[in-house]
Amino acid sequence: MPVDETEIRLFLRESYPRLLGAVALVTGDLATAEDAVQEALVRAWERSERGERIEALERWVAAVAMNLSRSRLRRLRVERLARPRLVAAATTDGPSGDAIDVRGALAALPRRQREATVLRYYLDLSTAEIADLMKTSEGTVKSQLSKARAHLAHALEIDNDQEQDHADV
Amino acid sequence: MPTFDDEIRSRMRSAAPVVPASEVFDRLAARKRSRARTRKIGTIATVVVVLAGTVAAFAIVDASRTGPQPNTEPTPTESPGNFGLAYPICDVSTMPLAIGSGEGNAIVFTRAIDGCPKQIQDETFVGVDVDGDGLVDATAGPIPDCFMQCEAFAAPDVNGDGVAEVMVSTAGADGYGIWPYVVTSSPPAIAPITEDGKPFRFAWVNVVTHSEAAHCATTDTGQAAFVLDYAEWDASGASVVEQSFALEGTSMTKLGQQRSTVTLDQVPVPTDELCGVPVHGSAAGAMGGPPTIEGRDIGLATNVCSVRSMDGLNLVPDGTPDTAFVGYVIDDTGRCPREANRQRWIVGVDVTGDGKADASTRLPLVSCPDVQCDLLGGTDLDADGADELVVTNSFSIRDETYFSVGAGGGTAKISPILVASPGHPAAHITPGEPLQTSAGGDEGYGSWIRCEGYPNAPVLVFTYGAGVVDGHQPTEWHEIKLQLQSDGLFHVVGATDLSLPANQDPGLVRSIAPACGLDFRGLS
Lengths: 169, 524
What we know:
A: Arc Repressor Mutant, subunit A; 9 helices; disordered C terminus; B: 524 residues; mainly beta
């Protein structure tokens, strides 16, 4: 599937807000997420123009955006430039109390647990797809999700009805 | 009642920011054009470097040429004969194999058709030479999951029948997956081991959160058992699951499972042997030891990693020199977390001189988890005879957070110094929050700190300009004068706010000299 202007516009309409939300939940910072997702999308566009094939654009952009957002220097720079805009946004239309709780609970997770959790519960990817995207084993993803679930259940006072079988590797 | 999964899914969707995609396409197009321009500049620079490098390389080759030169073309991976196979092979690894009183060999290899394949996952096989004559007598495969590298791993006799099993490792992100095979000497054969009809595999992993290994044991009835170990731990101990299997023919049958709790030094971790035989290939010597509690004990409830300390401070004016510490605390597993997970930074102070922290706080600095934080120093910002402590980080823009330390009645306390109401929200100096200043700059941002009235009535002057680097939008300039007053709060005693075209000088003093007794540029 060529990633051209039509495809990009379709992606922006149908996938961009959801993907941006996912990366923002992982980074805890909207500006960093916007920068990472847009950069990933531009890279996909450029690769397609060079003749490379990108089969699943949303997953490709998700993987690259997650990788980009890990760059601490990039994140700091973006945060710095976006600080006035973010503060203004926060004072006019802040998140609800529950949203703050959820974001706080996610922020307290180690980075890879946070990524696995958002990919599983926000983007609805399977553990196999998450393992592929995070370049790790499915067993490790299950283990990360199990720990994340335990933390989120405690932090958000949700009854955790699932017990992960850790021996299932 | 919704399940946990439904509940967390729903709440995460509510928590995610909602951002419309309008105008994003224009921004993407602009970004693409900007990247193209940057690449052109980069290409020109690269050509210059390559040309210069080529000239230098010729000079070196000419000076050192004394005989035939090695071929510098890329060559296929090792291909030492083909062990009697009907096709050429690559990526060969071998290990000895005990078969009764004799010794054969196990060979893991990738089949080469038109040279060594780049995609090896469907072309990697395991073979056995049962009589040690150097020729493969039987093969099995392709070996599953050979995405990066498959190697001969170990050849233990798991079921005690006198013929070793062949184990092949597949390299993964966190360690190795191991595929075991059964060898028959007469007639020569090799076949994958299965459990309930499916290929049997175990992991060989030792990472920050858990380990997976295996060992051989004997049951109470004298039966040979192959045991898979799975351990998870935190700083207080480890939980271990052991699953026992018996191997009959090519089938593994589960005998039982047992859970236990052990201390960290008893955690089963992969080593360089399996069931009394050595581990071969890249897994040998690569798995690390049992988990340990990392970091440094500075007198707090938890160890601290990457501790920076500064002594000779006068945080409490009692005649005893004081010491400050900064670092990040260990994670729940007792290890110093990797860079992306260093969230819990702590500042500690020793005001009694015993070398151990008497009080600590967690930093409110958002930049600490990403950039190593450090102690800038102590200076008396309110002219009361005691130093305030300034913590910063090592980055091109350094953020500073200010702490006051108190002691009395046998206890000590360290607290971030907050901004008094009304602050100066226009410049993001927010009342009730810890004062955070910065010094330094990068693309689109510059900040400076200078001082007036020091040491008798210090006023900290924080100046910064911020703008988007596109040449069109104005730069916002702020100069804020802050005084630490007797109520223990920073008061804004003067402010200038400007919005100017990007290239216009704001006319504000931007000094990089030491200020209020500290060099705010000091950490490099």
